[in-house]
Write a structure and sequence with these properties.
This protein is mainly beta. Helix content is 12%, strand content 45%.
Length: 145
Amino acid sequence: MKKVFIILAALMMVLPVIAQVNMINPALFSNDTETISLLNPNRLNMSHSMGFMAGTSSVGYGYYLSRYTNHLSYAFSQKLKMELDLNVINYGSTASSFKLNDDNNTRIVPDFRLSYQPSDKMHFQIEFHQGNYFPNYYNNWYDRW
């Protein structure tokens, strides 16, 4: 018992001395925010948005749609910017008894944009948008042809 008490007392005296020693940080963990890097976290912006829609008809059938979007924006330079939106969408329908039907679905819908503006009067933009959120979407425009 005396040995345990002596070891604990010695540790209690040594720990405050060890806690005051400044450890040398390796360069891997430096806090230098002005580093020149392609993936500089200071150039990254992130925001989030959420939405919910619901509707019903006079005969009691309805739908619901909820959306969560993570907006990412990265500026490679003042002239070149990339934006990425990751949309998580959940949708389905309801019956007149207020029960959810078995058509509850979740999709991830990405949107991408790359913008390059070499001068004030010239702008190039490449975009990718993935379809409509509703799986049974029907465009009447095709019937005209």
